[in-house]
TrEMBL record:
Catalyzes the hydrolysis of UDP-3-O-myristoyl-N-acetylglucosamine to form UDP-3-O-myristoylglucosamine and acetate, the committed step in lipid A biosynthesis. The lineage of its organism: Bacteria, Candidatus Ozemobacteria, Candidatus Ozemobacterales, Candidatus Ozemobacteraceae, Candidatus Ozemobacter. Pathway: Glycolipid biosynthesis; lipid IV(A) biosynthesis; lipid IV(A) from (3R)-3-hydroxytetradecanoyl-[acyl-carrier-protein] and UDP-N-acetyl-alpha-D-glucosamine: step 2/6. GO terms for cellular component: cytoplasm; membrane. Its EC number is 4.2.1.59, 3.5.1.108. This is Multifunctional fusion protein.
Length: 429
């Protein structure tokens, strides 16, 4: 699920059932999508077979489910299907419907996830785009809140609580990866309270709801379903499922830790819009070729204490790059080099410049996920020591490339003065 290339399904499949809220019979057919198209619904029962892209900008209603619309065409309750596609790592998909809502199936995303897995996942020749923010983003209103924290993974912490503790409070933290999604999150069913059903039906909702596609909770807090719950944390897992489905409407793979407190579809979609807006603002103000520390971590395999660059300030693909390393007195290597006079080891200066070269080459689609290795170093010169407080500018220029091997000229500067220079030979495997 965390690969670098976009994916679609290997073969079409069809599912039939009734819509949870509309109560109408419906047939869903999923077909492979083209690279870059995203997930698109198509209403085969309407004149002109209108297409409704699964995008946060197309959310038109959020009452007890997420509804997408373009013009007069609508698709209701898309969150379980969207979560299933996201959880199984599917980026591009056609979803043809002969009605206004996907089939509810058993009230979870598991039937969709099983069908997607059986259809097979096919990598496509286009890199994924990741929504990753370098800063905290929050949305808070009363006792509801959503917070985004930077992370190189997609994590969710959800707090579920209801007045009177009719359902005991549940708090759960998960890393959203395919195995956990399929085994636990996808199985969690829609749930509701007995006293809500009359109100929902007055609003023409839950018309297809039954004990076969929802968990119903009685006034005393017990479960009406004879089989009980599927998981001791099924209710909070279903809230996480809904959140994943709503955030999937961002249209990009999310990297970050989302902390949710008592949220539903309306709040989830507001937060998804805010994340989209912040991501777009950051992309527009970021100079061409600039990369943050988190973006560097998504390209290089290095981690603390061996990740030696803080950001990339310029990158001309296949030609050159400039990185920054802020040298502080807290660097681990200063404990032994040297206790009486802190000096950055020359081998680590070479390594830092090599890592900038690594970003330059591994950021290219054909090299994503590979590893760079030294095969030679020529003409190394150390002009002066690098000490705490120095800001290293690490310049890399490509001299020659042949297949997976190449040669680069590297130079480290402090305050415009050269401190180290060399030529590095490498291979990418």
């Amino acid at each position: 699920m965390s690969g670098e290339r976009q994916c679609t399904i290997g073969a079409p499949f069809t599912m039939e059932g009734i819509g949870l809220h509309t109560g109408r019979p419906v047939r869903l057919t999923a077909r492979p999508g083209e690279p870059g198209q995203g997930i698109r619904f198509r209403r085969l029962d309407l004149p002109g077979t209108p297409v409704i892209p699964a995008a946060i900008a197309n959310v038109v209603e959020v009452l007890r489910g997420t509804t997408l619309g373009v013009g007069e065409a609508r698709v209701h309750t898309v969150e379980h299907l969207m979560a299933g596609a996201y959880g199984l790592g599917i980026d591009n998909l056609w979803l043809d419907l002969d009605g206004p809502e996907p089939p509810a199936m058993d009230g979870s995303a598991r039937p969709f996830a099983e069908a997607l897995r059986q259809a097979g996942r096919v990598e496509q020749d286009l890199p994924r785009t990741f929504c990753r923010l370098p800063e905290i983003c929050q949305l808070e209103e009363g006792d509801r809140a959503l917070t985004y924290l930077p992370s190189d993974r997609f994590e969710v912490t959800f707090t579920l609580a209801y007045p009177g503790n009719l359902i005991p409070p549940q708090i759960l933290h998960v890393e959203v990866e395919e195995t956990l999604f399929f085994d636990r999150i996808s199985r969690a069913r829609t749930f509701g309270f007995v006293h809500e059903f009359d109100m929902l039906r007055e609003k023409r909702l839950a018309l297809g709801g039954s004990l076969e596609n929802a968990v119903v909770i009685k006034a005393d807090g017990t479960c009406m379903n004879p089989e009980g719950v599927r998981d001791p944390q099924e209710f909070v897992l279903h809230k996480i499922l809904d959140l994943i489905g709503d955030l999937a409407l961002i249209g990009k793979r999310l990297r970050g830790h989302v902390i949710a407190h008592k949220t539903g579809h309306a709040y989830n979609c507001r937060f998804a819009r805010r994340l989209c807006q912040r991501f777009q603002e950051i992309q527009e103000r970021k100079p061409s070729g600039m990369m943050t520390y988190e973006e560097i971590k998504s390209i290089l395999p290095h981690r603390y204490p061996m990740l030696l660059i803080d950001k990339i300030v310029a990158l001309d693909p296949g030609k050159s790059a400039i990185g920054i390393k802020n040298v502080t007195g807290n660097e681990e290597f200063f404990q032994g080099h040297f206790p009486q006079r802190a000096v950055m080891p020359g081998v680590l200066l070479i390594e830092a410049m090599a890592q900038v070269a690594g970003v330059l080459f591994l950021s290219q689609p054909e090299h994503k996920g590979k590893l760079p290795f030294f095969v030679g170093i020529d003409g190394v010169r150390f002009r002066r020591p690098v000490v705490p407080g120095d800001r290293l500018e690490l310049h890399v220029k490509v001299l020659k490339v042949r297949g997976n091997t190449g040669k680069v000229a590297v130079e480290a500067r402090v305050d415009g003065e050269e401190v180290t220079a060399a030529e590095l030979m490498f291979t990418i495997v």
